[in-house]
Design brief:
Keywords: Lyase. The chain has 305 residues and is of the alpha/beta class. 39% of the residues lie in helices and 15% in strands. The protein has a single domain, classed as Alpha-Beta Barrel (TIM Barrel). α5 links the parallel β5 (161-164) and β6.
Length: 305
C-alpha cells in the first residue's frame, strides 16, 4: 500500500468569514442583518470559522453563543478590539476594560486570537477628521509600547495572542507605517493581521509584506478593492466609510490584490493561519451578502483553501 501524500501547505490555512461580510459594523444598528440570520447564512455559504465582530452583535453569554454556533457547525477564530494607545497611559484603563470583555468571550469560545484595530483619525460614523493622520514621535512610542503591554497582559491574563490590523484611515495603514510599527515592536509579542484589501487600499503589496515580514504574519483577512473606484476615492480624498458605500471593496476575483499569489505566499510560511473573508459592505441590502459569500467560498476552494 502506498503512503498517503503529505498535506499541502495550503491545507494549513483555515478559511472563515465575519459579520463584516454581512454589512455589520456596529453592535446594534437597524441597517444590519440580525445576528441569527448572519449565523444561518455564513454556515449555508460553506464556512466553518467566524469572528465575533463588534462586541455585542453576537450574544455575549458564552453558553448561549456556543449553543448557537455549534448547532450550525461554526467555531470562533477571534475577537476584535479597537484601541487608541497612541494617546498614552491616560487611555489604558478604558482600553483594558474594553479588551477584557472581548478577550473573556473570545477565550470562552475556544479562540486564540484577538484582532486589534488602531483607532480611526476620522469619526467612523460621520467621517469628520478628529485627529492628525500622522503621529508625532512621542505618539509612535506610546503606540508601540502600548501594543507591547497589551500583548503581554492579554497573553498573561487570557492566554490569547494579539494580531494588529493595519486599516485605512488609521495610523497603521500602508507600507511605511506598517514597517515602522513592526520594526519598533517585539516580534515575540506583537504579530500582524494582514488585511489584503486595506493594505492594497493604502498602496501596500501583500505578497511583498509576507515575503519580507513572514514571521510577523499571524492572521489574514481576505479582501479586494475595486481599482477603478479606489482611484476615484484617492483622487477625491474620500473617507473610508463613504468609499465603502461607493463599493470600493469588491468580491473576488474582481479586484486587487489577486488572492492566489497571496495565499501561495502565506502557504509557504511555517505557520497555521486563519484566512477570514471580510468584504466591507456597510450598509447593504439584507439579501446581498449570502450570494456573494457562496461565490467567494467557491472561488477560494479553487485557490486550494
Amino acid at each position: 500500500m502506498s503512503a498517503s501524500p503529505p498535506p499541502s501547505p495550503a491545507s494549513r490555512i483555515r478559511v472563515g468569514s465575519a459579520p463584516d461580510s454581512w454589512g455589520v459594523w456596529f453592535a446594534d444598528d437597524p441597517a444590519q442583518v440580525p445576528w441569527r440570520r448572519f449565523l444561518d447564512e455564513v454556515a449555508d455559504a460553506g464556512y466553518a470559522w467566524i469572528e465575533l465582530g463588534p462586541y455585542g452583535y453576537l450574544p455575549t453569554d458564552p453558553a448561549r453563543l456556543r449553543a448557537e454556533t455549534e448547532r450550525r457547525g461554526l467555531t470562533v477564530s477571534a475577537g476584535t478590539v479597537f484601541t487608541a494607545l497612541h494617546r498614552g497611559p491616560a487611555v489604558w484603563d478604558a482600553t483594558w476594560e474594553h479588551v477584557g470583555r472581548v478577550a473573556e468571550l473570545t477565550r470562552a469560545m475556544g479562540a486564540r486570537h484577538l484582532v486589534v484595530i488602531p483607532s480611526f483619525w476620522r469619526d467612523d460614523r460621520t467621517a469628520e477628521v478628529i485627529e492628525d493622520p500622522e503621529l508625532t514621535a512621542d505618539q509612535w512610542r506610546a503606540l508601540t509600547s502600548g501594543m507591547e503591554r497589551l500583548a503581554r497582559e492579554v497573553r498573561e491574563t487570557y492566554g490569547l495572542g494579539i494580531v494588529v490590523h493595519p486599516h485605512a484611515d488609521t495610523h497603521i495603514d500602508g507600507e511605511a507605517h506598517v514597517e515602522r510599527f513592526l520594526d519598533a515592536t517585539d516580534p515575540e509579542l506583537v504579530s500582524l493581521c494582514l488585511d489584503t484589501g486595506h493594505y492594497a487600499y493604502c498602496g501596500g503589496d501583500s505578497v511583498k509584506l509576507i515575503e519580507t515580514y513572514g514571521e510577523r504574519i499571524g492572521y489574514l483577512h481576505l479582501k479586494q478593492v475595486d481599482p477603478g473606484v479606489l482611484a476615484d476615492v484617492l483622487a477625491e480624498g474620500t473617507p473610508f466609510g463613504p468609499a465603502v458605500r461607493r463599493g470600493v471593496m469588491c468580491e473576488p476575483p474582481r479586484g486587487v490584490p489577486a488572492l492566489e499569489p497571496v495565499l501561495a505566499a502565506a502557504a509557504k510560511l511555517d505557520a497555521e493561519l486563519f484566512a477570514i473573508v471580510e468584504q466591507d459592505m456597510y450598509p447593504c441590502p439584507p439579501d446581498r451578502p449570502l450570494p456573494i459569500a457562496r461565490r467567494t467560498r467557491r472561488f477560494l476552494r479553487g485557490c486550494g483553501v
